[in-house]
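Quick one, T. Sequence first:
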Amino acid sequence: MASGAAAKAADCPREGALGTSRILDVSAATTPRVGLKSFPQTPPLEDHEVVLTFDDGPSPPTTRLVLAALAHECVRATFFLIGKSASEHPELVRRIAAEGHTVGHHTWSHRSLMRIRPDEAVTEIDRGIAADEAALHGVATTIPTTPFFRFPGFESTPAALDLLQSRGIVVFGADLWASDWNPMTPKQELKLVTDRLRIAGKGILLFHDSKARTAAMLPAFLRYLKDNRYRVVHLVPAVPAGGRAGIP
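Structure tokens:
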């Protein structure tokens, strides 16, 4: 993590919005794995700084609602996309990127990589990246523009972790989550995640933009962040000297 590369985010045109506090570069060379729920390291966030991440999209219409809520508050997030869904909704993938969010990768079909053969796991990773890249840029490649990856269910294997590290791809866990895979109301989800955030004080948060309860809850959560003086940090890939993100 190159703290010296941190930059202030662009000013928000809507007065009174939460906004994005700063941008922080993430380098696989220094922090190949982040998120304290799974790994020893996490980004060097200050107290009351949060990183917003969303898994399992794109999923119309819920992803559109999530994007609208983020845009209203001038907040940028990271979306870990399922390749199959990206291939079905390429226009939404391009919208995510066009609105300034980071596009990461979440396999082709969200299978647990712990429960399939190693060669199948590699195919899930590569096919997912290729589908996301094709949706974004029209060219299917296994070299990701943004070398960020999250395992479905955080179910990693040593072989897959080694593979991703060898390719210069940062593996994301999380520091806390909304547990939005469980049945609950938006109000219940809001209380759960704000209670957890009060205890943690900062960190990478995990949501799912495929969940209607999360899309409904998000505007209130962003207001909570603003009212309680939390600041949003946007993570982007560090660019290697003489290269581009995605190439070690």
